[in-house]
Every structure is written in C-alpha cells, then in structure tokens.
Amino acid sequence: MAVNRDSNGYTFGFAIALVVVVGVLLAGIAMWTKPFQEKNQKVKKQMDILKAILTDDEYEKIDRKNAPEEFKKYVNLDDAVVLDMNGNIQEDVKAFDVNIKKQFRDKKLKEEDKEYPLFIATIDGKTAYVIPVVGKGLWGPIWGNLCIDADMRTIKGASFDHKSETPGLGAEIKQNFFIKGWIGEKIADENMNFQKFEVVKDKSGSTKESKVDGITGGTITSKGVEEMVNRCLLPYVAYFKTLKK
Fold first, then answer.
1. Residue 38 gets which letter from DSSP?
2. How many Å apart are CA 51 and CA 54, to the nearest integer?
C-alpha cells in the first residue's frame, strides 16, 4: 500500500516520530554528560572558595586540573558544618552538597528550611572560615565567598561572581578593586553583634567602618552585593557568637 506523503496524517505522524527520536537523543545526551557537568560544577565551586582564601599570586597557579588537590590542602570537608537560619548546626547534612543557588531560586522554600554551609580552612597554620553567599544583581544571580579570619570577625578574603551583569559596570564585582574594599572589614563588633554593611557611591568606603565603595555605574549590582552579604551573614555571626562564648 502506497503512503500518501501529502496527507495530513503522514505529516502529523512524521512530526510525532521526529519529536520522539529527538527527545530520546537529547535525554541520552543529558544522561551521558551529567557526570561531566557535576564534576565541572564541583571544581568550579572549589575554585571559587580557593579564590577567597588565597592571594592573587597563589590563585594564579590554580586551574581546573589542580584545583581538587589544592582544595584539599586548605579545606577539610570533614570539619565543615551546615547551619540553620539561627546559627544552629544541622546534623547529617554535607556542607559541600548544599546548593545555595538552588535554595535562593526556590521561592517556595521557607527561611527556616534553608541550609547555610560553613567551610573551615587552614591558612599558614591558622584557622579561617569560608562563608558562601548568594543574591540577585541587575540582570541575574550573583554569588561569592567571604573568608573570615580566626577572630571570627575580620574579612580576610573574598570572591564575587555573576551570571549576566553588564560588562564594565555590574560585572566589575569580580574585580580586585571592588573585592579589596571588603578586606579588613568587620562582620561583628567586639561583642559579636552583627554589623550591617553599606555599599556606598560617595567614595567614603575607604574611611568609614562597615562601608564599602560601590562600582561607578553599577549601583544596582553593588546594592545587590550589599543585600546578599547582609542577609547571608546573619546565621554565621550567630554561630560565631556561640563559639566565642
């Protein structure tokens, strides 16, 4: 029996068959590439943390190939903890597995159900604490890590990144001139009470405590970093306060 290729039935049947075949192929490719994607995401996460704890010269030697081994030199994941919004340790949760970006995107997730990973690093024989942060810039998500000194108050290092901020403006949050403004700032006073940050555009950030100079022309992204840091730091300051006691 000859097939009428000009009929509507043939057209619909061919379209359906094509969709099924393409769908199966795409699903197969997704399953095949998933391990590689997960590995790349893990390495990228390690590199982001390393950028917050290493000097510029040290970080220049880091690449995707040596990042896992270098990460182990500084961070022991067995020491990492996961906190709740009040700074209490959550048991049976692996810190590195917590996806703070996914949590931030999930608008249905209640604040009390969010998890806050804290990584413990050893730098030159001294303890440091790495706090991941996530927020929203002008065009999309922003994120980063803050490295806190052994005193649990002073910002020792930082790294920020973005997905789609404007080049030359908001995208500058990942540049050293902006990051250096955070170094030496205190996240809490001497009594371990949280000190709220303000990202300013009047260039007073270098002379006043708890103020950081923003990016010229990138006000919304700068304020996004301000909101991100202030919101994300609260559970960690509460936890540090209990350690101080």
1. H
2. 6
Which has the closest alpha carbon to 197: 156, 171, 228? 228
pLDDT digits (tens, 9 = 90+) for 183-230: 999 999 999 999 999 999 887 877 788 899 999 999 999 999 999 999
Residue 88 gets which letter from DSSP?
Answer: P
| pTM for this predicted structure | 0.85
Number of domains in the chain: 2
Provide the residue range defining the domain that includes 171. Answer: 76-244
DSSP H or E segment with residue 143: strand 141-148
Q: Give me 136's structure tokens.
A: 């929203």
Q: What torsion, rounded to 10 degrees, do the Cα atoms 133, 138, 139, 145 define?
A: -20
For 242, the token pair is: 């209990």
Q: Which residue has the tokens 């908001």?
A: 170
Mean pLDDT of 135-154: 96
Q: Does 202 fall in a domain?
A: yes
